[in-house]
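Objective 1b: paired records.
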Amino acid sequence: KSGGLSNRVLRALLGTFPESLRHFDEDSGCTSLHLLCKVANSKSNLDMAIKMILLTLPETALLTDRQSKVPLHYATNQRFLCKKTIEVLLACRPEAAMVKDALGQLPIHYALMEKCDSNQTCNNDVIAHSQGLVVKELLNAHQRGAQVRDMNGMLPLSLACRNNAPYNAITELISAYSDAAKDQDCDNRLPLHWAC
């Protein structure tokens, strides 16, 4: 539980038993890094703890939980994305951007799942800009992620258009894989249809 986690306590625990980072919690099926990434967002202050874990045992960034998710899946599945957390995870293990979970979803699919309506907080300029920056980071780590369909047969560009992703996310996806603009999803819709 991250509620009272202090960096001093974490440092002491990691110094005593660093192998604990490979341990999976019986209830959740997650490692401590998975658990931190579930709650790390732009409103939390967990970047230092995540960085400490990755410096201690970098391979924890690629450990998969019961749902075949790496910590990056959880970090990208947040309403208030934390670009710093995602940058730290990708700097440690960029290949995490191409790990599919049990549903066949990449972290980029999760980053684009939040549907933004004009009345919602997620359309706030700062948050929308953050989503675009996260998409850019994920594509920098693995550009082919723009060519991978999600569990519903949608490419990231269609998913972004369907969910009203910000302009900078759309342009990053087009730059990474422009043919996606011509791609019909399983409903025979083009990204333009979703955008309208």
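Objective 1b, second protein:
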Amino acid sequence: LEERLLASEKTLLPTVREAQEILKESFGESQAVSRLSHVYHASEKSLASHSGAWKRYTTSDGLLADYVYAIAQDKRGILWIATLNGVYQYDGNSFTPATFNDAFRETYVLSLFIDKAEHLWFGTNSKGVFRWDGQNVVNYTVKDGLAGNAVTAITQDRNGSLWFACAGSGISRYDGKTFTNFTTADGLANNLVNTI
């Protein structure tokens, strides 16, 4: 995969689409987008893309912060980028702050995922998980049944249930109505789960 991307002469968005297709073949639909953050360099310095030569995107290009935690792409081709200081959209030309960034005050987004209904899910370091349906933001925390408020990874299974890795608290499965939590008491090897 890396060799194919490095040899690519394409711009950022078509290259991401190609990567997504390759990842679908290897990991399935639900894992393809979340694995893009491993393909596109998420570093303490910048977001980088490859289009014949590496290009780094930093705060001087319009990002909220140089530290990027996660990247996902929606069906329209928009990249959603979680940074230390909020979430940005990238349309191939410019970075635009997400209209709901106020929801992430006093926290930062560690993970993001786009579900089958095209809802965006944002896992934070201290305020649980947020869901954006295109109009409204809903927050789920331990008070709602989530295993922990630090959500490091999100994925969706074939049945449509969402899974959340809760650092230090195990994992949660959300069926759209209720959370079911799994910890070492249920046979999980360790409660410190960083990815799913």
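The chain has a mean pLDDT of 79. The radius of gyration is 16 Å.
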